[in-house]
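Example for tutorial group B:
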């Protein structure tokens, strides 16, 4: 296991002297620890203090914390720098692939012998001469061993190239490391060239040419009417089988550099499923073998007739190293996804390499150059008349330094760039669904997700980062988390459903902010994610339009947006909303609107996938299975509750009611409850509904007095047209209550 501990000789650049919090036992020379939970801190008498990060501090770090200690929050500039060094970062990469591994060491003569053996055509054991008592299996065992060595050498070359790329890329991000890392990078480059030369022994350059010729071949005329193929079936069936055989042969022949013996199995395809004792089977097999052999000969002839002496310059830009989400035994990204032919070309014809910039310069024959350029959809290739000037890793123009993130006062912040955010994402995979508070001169203070920030910055937008979700003060978040409380053990009883009276104090709670916080915390995927969801919810609540939180989709087609529980904390289901009190009165005896003004509810936001009845398709809630329960995205429609009441031609989904609403503030929820209470009283006083003989007019009168005094929370007065209409309705109901009281015996 390589040691990636931070050492005193590592230049700290602009982070030299940054205060870090350390924990130690008492004593002048006691070891320093990043956390009090370090297993090497074996004392109850612990001192916590702040010291400058410098060579003396690094020299006193305990070995465990020097390798993986969290000396700064991961979202700060110092945290990103230290994470880029530790783990499998720069310090690890500088030590790896510098010399042969003692456990997997191989000698040069072993590589040469294995390559020579694999260049000879293999003979099937069954094809051994009849006088041999046993087939020569030793040859096949030797070939299998040679193939394993070939695969090991190629894999090691790819790993060494990837390691050099990662190391050089890290150095370019932090320019103050360049001089210190240069000798170590030189050792890695020398060993990488040794591996390339060994890997080149296994690559057949003639096979590369033949593969390029095979890939360029046009489909030949297929002998579908030849009676030799009659065992396959009718002429149409023969044509289908031979066409499939041609496509498979061309695909396989163009992928590597192996000879025809590596593709003999393809001849079994057209006769698959046919009994060997069937009449004509042997003739068909022989005809298929002859057909495949003719294609092989055409490819060889095409390669031989090409001009291998005429060489051209081609630069190839490799894909980025992908996030390692695959199993550890599956290589992905950079050189990992290239087929054998492309890998062989890079190994054989490499002239210059800028591994940091992922750009390789090749000197290749014309036939291979043409194929590289025709495969530009897979690799970014470009032809050149003369040899391109070798490029060297250029230091970043916007390196990470104090003031980029929240590690300095706001007044000292530096402009944020797309490079900074890409580095932040590479250091922490969960950053994709984080929210950040940013300030710009054109947009003021905004809350934006990381992908949206990246898109804007790429277009030249300038902003300063104020804080991320993890930066919100614990003194604010922790009391809120305690108020929400822990999730009940019985998940089936998280939200018991039962009808509530309009006069119940908890009526409408499913629409309020408090219930939103509860859902965001209790529905977290892991228990430790509850506080993180509350932090995201706190930031998102201040966003004016939730559609701006859409981060698009990642390379795997997954939506980059807020976690689902956070969306449930922001939005309420449409089925929990009852707008009957605000609808216009009609002739329906049992469901007639109350005509109550919407008041503070008029501007409550409504989100749906489709609000336009002229566009085909129903409108769905962001939580509807038909919309993949993906939350709000940029293409959704935004309405208000006032819009819902003004139009009745919306085409809503019957399962989700078509939309979700922004959760009601305390003032809005208070008004919603008051309106339902008022509507309930109006219905009880309606003589057409009956029940006057059971009225408790004294209670109704008291309730109306309370409703007459309703006003938004924190305001002494309520002067709007809706307020006047509200009071008029209350006064009319008070008069009805008095009349009903006089009529009641």
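The residue assignment follows.
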């Amino acid at each position: 296991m390589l040691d990636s501990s931070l050492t005193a000789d590592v230049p700290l650049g602009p982070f030299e002297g940054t205060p870090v919090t350390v924990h130690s036992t008492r004593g002048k020379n006691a070891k320093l620890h990043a956390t009090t939970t370090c297993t090497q801190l074996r004392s109850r008498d612990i001192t916590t203090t702040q010291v400058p990060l410098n060579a003396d501090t690094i020299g006193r770090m305990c070995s465990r914390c020097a390798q993986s200690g969290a000396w700064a929050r991961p979202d700060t500039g110092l945290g990103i720098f230290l994470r880029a060094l530790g783990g499998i970062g720069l310090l690890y990469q500088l030590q790896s692939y510098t010399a042969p591994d003692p456990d997997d060491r191989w000698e040069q003569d072993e590589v040469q012998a294995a390559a020579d053996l694999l260049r000879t055509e293999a003979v099937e054991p069954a094809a051994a001469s009849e006088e041999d008592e046993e087939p020569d299996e030793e040859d096949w065992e030797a070939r299998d061993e040679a193939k394993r060595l070939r695969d090991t050498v190629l894999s090691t070359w790819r790993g060494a190239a990837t390691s050099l790329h990662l190391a050089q890329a890290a150095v370019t991000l932090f320019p103050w490391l360049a001089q210190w890392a240069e000798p170590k990078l030189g050792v890695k480059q020398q060993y990488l060239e040794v591996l390339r030369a060994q890997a080149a022994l296994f690559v057949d350059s003639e096979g590369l040419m033949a593969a390029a010729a095979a890939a360029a071949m046009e489909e030949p005329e297929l002998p579908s009417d030849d009676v030799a193929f009659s065992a396959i079936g009718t002429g149409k069936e023969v044509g289908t089988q031979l066409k499939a055989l041609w496509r498979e042969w061309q695909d396989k022949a163009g992928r590597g550099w192996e000879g025809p013996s590596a593709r003999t199995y393809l001849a079994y395809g057209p006769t698959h499923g046919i009994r060997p004792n069937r009449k004509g089977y042997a003739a068909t097999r022989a005809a298929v073998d002859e057909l495949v052999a003719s294609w092989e000969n055409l490819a060889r002839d095409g390669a031989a007739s090409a001009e291998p002496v005429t060489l051209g310059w081609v630069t190839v830009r490799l894909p980025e190293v992908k996030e390692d989400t695959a199993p550890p035994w599956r290589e992905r990204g950079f050189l990992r996804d290239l087929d054998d032919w492309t890998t062989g070309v890079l190994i054989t014809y490499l002239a210059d390499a800028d591994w940091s910039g992922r750009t390789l310069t090749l000197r290749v024959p014309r036939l291979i150059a043409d194929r590289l350029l025709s495969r530009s959809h897979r690799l970014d290739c470009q032809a050149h008349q003369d040899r391109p000037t070798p490029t060297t890793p250029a230091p970043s123009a916007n390196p990470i330094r104090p003031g980029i993130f929240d590690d300095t006062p706001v007044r000292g912040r530096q402009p944020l760039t797309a490079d900074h955010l890409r580095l932040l994402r590479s250091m922490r995979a969960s950053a994709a669904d984080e929210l950040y508070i940013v300030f710009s001169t054109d947009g003021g203070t905004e809350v934006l997700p990381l992908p949206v920030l990246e898109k804007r910055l790429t277009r030249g937008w300038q902003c300063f980062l104020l804080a991320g979700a993890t930066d919100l003060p614990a003194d604010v978040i922790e009391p809120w988390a305690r108020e929400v409380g822990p999730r009940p053990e019985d998940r089936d009883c998280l939200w018991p459903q039962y009808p509530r009276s309009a006069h119940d104090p908890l009526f409408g709670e499913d629409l309020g902010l408090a219930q939103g916080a509860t859902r965001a915390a209790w529905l977290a995927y892991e228990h430790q994610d509850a506080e993180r969801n509350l932090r995201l919810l706190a930031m998102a609540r201040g966003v004016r339009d939730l559609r701006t939180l859409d981060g698009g989709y990642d390379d795997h087609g997954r939506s980059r947006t807020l976690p689902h529980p956070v969306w449930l904390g922001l939005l309420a289901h449409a089925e929990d909303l009852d707008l009957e009190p605000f609808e216009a009165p009609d002739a329906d005896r049992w469901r007639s609107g109350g005509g109550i003004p919407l008041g503070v509810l008029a501007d409550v936001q409504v989100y749906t996938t489709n609000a336009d009845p002229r566009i085909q398709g129903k409108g769905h809630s962001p939580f509807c299975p038909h919309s993949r329960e993906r939350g709000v995205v940029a293409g959704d429609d935004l309405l208000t509750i006032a819009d819902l009441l003004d139009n009745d031609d919306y085409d809503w989904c019957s399962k989700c009611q078509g939309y979700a609403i922004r959760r009601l503030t305390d003032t809005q929820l208070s008004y919603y409850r008051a309106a339902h209470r008022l509507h309930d009283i109006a219905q009880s006083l309606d003589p057409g509904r009956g029940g006057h003989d059971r009225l408790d007019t004294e209670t109704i009168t008291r309730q109306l007095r309370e409703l007459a005094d309703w006003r938004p929370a924190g305001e002494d007065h309520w002067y709007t047209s809706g307020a006047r209409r509200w009071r008029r309705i209350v006064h009319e109901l008070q008069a009805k209550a008095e009349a009903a009281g006089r009529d009641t015996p």
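The mean pLDDT is 86. Compare this with the pattern of hydrophobic and polar residues in the output above.
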